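Sequence in, structure out. Go.
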Amino acid sequence: MSDSHPRTRLAAAGLVWAFATFSGGAAPARADDALAPFAAESVIEIATRDEDGAARDTPVWIVALDGAAFVRTNDSRWLANIRRGSPVAIRAAGAERAVRASEVADAALKARVEEAFLAKYGRMQRVMSALRWREPTVLRLEPAAP
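Output:
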């Protein structure tokens, strides 16, 4: 996918983005079957609820790595919502899936995700990296229990 792909959008509020990767530089990594259609997209929406109950839908970039999907953000409202316990869903191409979002603490995994981000988004990622004031929070997305 080229850097100028029309679906590669940025969320201006919060400089939000997510990632995509290649496993070992070969075939694309795969997300769990339930998340694979979302991980194949350039941009998805992450849906949370604000403290007052209002819906918050935010476009983000996404990556598949080791059978999971990952997104990242700096200090965003939707991250605060997740930390507060808001339900989380992802949307793309008319589909929606409830997910669990957990923060990634492992430095080695974060580095792999950063490499994946570079691989998928190229120049756009470099621009975003230059604009960020600190390391982003990386979140692992997994299907929520029914």
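Check: The chain has one domain: 17-143. The two ends are 34 Å apart (CA to CA).
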